[in-house]
Specification:
The complex is a heterodimer. By secondary structure, chain A is of the alpha/beta class. Chain A has one domain: Rossmann fold (3-Layer(aba) Sandwich). Chain A has five helices and five strands, in the order E-H-E-H-E-H-E-H-E-H. Chain A is globular, with a radius of gyration of 14 Å. In chain A, 32% of the residues are buried. Chain B is α+β, with helices and mostly antiparallel strands. In chain B, the strands form three sheets. Chain B has a five-stranded antiparallel sheet. Chain B has a five-stranded mixed sheet with strand order 7-9-10-12-11. A two-stranded antiparallel sheet of chain B has the order 6-8. Chain B starts with 6 loop residues before the first strand and ends in a 15-residue tail after the last strand. Classes of the chains: A alpha/beta, B alpha+beta.
């Protein structure tokens, strides 16, 4: 089972991603968290997320309430446990400054959400196809016991 | 530069007025007989008396004229800004016996300069605000629009034909509206980004034209268009903007073609320190009453069914040309093609000092 963590504060967007991945090629489990702090808690399996599985892929929105996507990215890439997990930035912002900043913070790729539904589905499927099929990722370590 | 409007006054070293011309009467409001014999303090604001005292003290030592910009008081209590030139008056043995001062009102000029600077400042601010507004608005509008567009499309996909005919029609309108809005926002964003910043460099307009043509290759093939051009000059500008300018104008010529395949000719000629380009086509042309309006943002002259597009292309062209210090115009009659003309600055070399003869 492929684990995907989606960090997205807009439930409409989250639902679209769920719809797009529903009939995907791979058996996947998509978990949605709505802000940066929850995302980091989830990834570190702290607080409410002690039972969480470490994801194979993180889809990260940039503009989030509280701790935003840039900070989540920075903390992930500074954490030896988390830095190998590919992070796909999935955002409405096409601002050059956001693109540059994300790559400078070691984002694995940057995608602007298409407005069109068909294109959005294509993009989400493309992400799945590339990161879960074409790319060879390191084996996921066993979750911490206890 | 004595001018009949200059107020000419003379006074003793102690500051007693000894002469007062007609222009002084006009400027200060006192008649000669009222002013002569009075102290100069009559027209000098109290805090400016010190300044005047210093000038008078220097008059004994120097021979030339001293020029100051200062304030004076008029009879009706107004303060006026004046430029005053004060010269010593000496007797035959060279002793200082008084001073003459020649003054004119510079308030009007100063006010105009100040107002102009203020206006320029305001304009720059409101321009910047407007660009920021367009940019932020189009960015922030994307998010809710994506929701509307995506979910309407999802409804269309899942439920088309499963509701009644009315529902399908309504969904169709909603999808169409969302798509149009999407294009408008994308174009608004494009417009707000066009013609901004970046340093000017040398632009080979032949290269810019080639790139524009490469971007238009499908439209060129589809319409069997013929594009010809004169020798293309080097200009000073921002390369991607010049490419976009050519691309939009040639693209327009291809889009609004008549019954014959489009023929486009691009020419360039010198006009002072600039190059004037013209892009002439054999298309459907533009009725005279619309010639000025076609450069407005989102202005369209035809139904969407006939010619697609939001009407942003020429507005972007105008913005790019304006950013390069020029103007864009169109010459056309309905059914007889159109010729767009615009100017771009000439290229003067990377180091302007090389071209200037230095004299020592």
């Amino acid at each position: 089972m492929i684990e995907i963590l989606l960090v997205e504060d807009n439930p409409g967007d989250a639902r679209l991603a769920v719809e797009a991945l529903k009939d995907g090629k791979f058996a996947n489990r998509l978990t949605v968290v709505e802000d940066g702090t929850s995302a980091l808690n989830y990834l570190r399996r702290e607080g409410n997320y002690r039972e969480a599985e470490l994801p194979d892929l993180v889809l990260l929105d940039l503009n989030l309430p509280g701790k935003d996507g840039r900070e989540v990215l920075r903390e992930m890439k500074a954490d030896p446990e988390l830095r190998r997990i590919p992070v796909v930035i999935l955002t409405t912002s096409s601002a050059e400054a956001d693109v540059l900043k994300s790559y400078n913070l070691y984002a694995n790729c940057y995608i602007v959400k298409p407005v069109d539904l068909a294109q959005f589905v294509t993009v989400v499927r493309g992400i799945e196809d590339f990161w879960l099929s074409i790319v060879k990722l390191p084996t996921r370590p066993e979750a911490h016991g206890g | 530069m004595l001018n009949s409007n200059d107020a000419i006054i003379s006074k003793t070293p102690d500051g007693i007025i000894t002469s007062w011309n007609a222009a002084a009467e006009e400027l200060y409001g006192y008649r000669a007989e009222e002013a002569i014999g009075r102290h100069i303090g009559l027209i000098v604001p109290p805090e400016k008396l010190g300044e005047l005292g210093e000038i008078m003290a220097r008059l004994g030592k120097v021979t030339g004229t001293q020029k100051i910009e200062t304030e004076r008081l008029t009879r009706d209590g107004r303060r006026i800004e004046v430029e005053v030139r004060i010269s010593p008056i000496r007797n035959a043995s060279g002793k200082l016996i008084g001073a003459s001062s020649i003054a004119h009102d510079i308030g009007e000029t100063r006010r105009m300069v100040r107002e102009l600077a203020h206006t320029v400042d305001n304009l720059a601010k409101s321009n910047a605000e407007l660009e920021q507004f367009a940019y932020v608005a189009s960015h922030d509008l994307q998010e809710p629009l994506r929701m509307v567009a995506s979910y309407v499309q999802l409804i269309a996909q899942r439920y088309e034909g499963r509701l009644d005919n009315d529902a399908d029609e309504f969904i169709g309108f909603a999808v169409d509206g969302a798509n149009r809005m999407k294009n408008l926002i994308a174009d608004l964003l494009k417009y707000s980004r066009a013609g901004r910043g970046e340093a000017f460099t040398e632009v080979n307009t032949a290269t810019a034209l080639e790139e524009a043509m490469a971007n238009l290759q499908f439209a060129l093939r589809e319409t069997a268009a013929g594009v010809t051009h004169d020798v293309m000059p080097r200009i000073s500008g921002i390369p991607p903007q010049i490419t976009e300018l050519f691309q939009n104008l040639i693209g327009n010529a291809l889009k609004f073609h008549g019954p014959d395949p489009p023929r486009v000719h691009i020419s360039a000629r010198r006009a002072d320190a600039r190059w004037e380009f013209s892009i002439a086509d054999n298309g459907i042309g533009i009725a005279p009453e619309y010639r000025g309006k076609i450069f407005e943002i989102f202005r369209r002259l035809h139904g969407r069914g006939k010619y697609p597009g939001t009407g942003i292309g020429l507005a972007i062209c105008r913005k790019i040309v304006a950013h390069h210090g020029g103007e864009i115009t169109v010459d056309s009659a309905e059914g007889q093609g159109a010729t767009f003309r615009f100017t771009l600055p000439e290229y003067v070399g990377s180091d302007p000092n090389n071209c200037v003869a230095t004299s020592t």
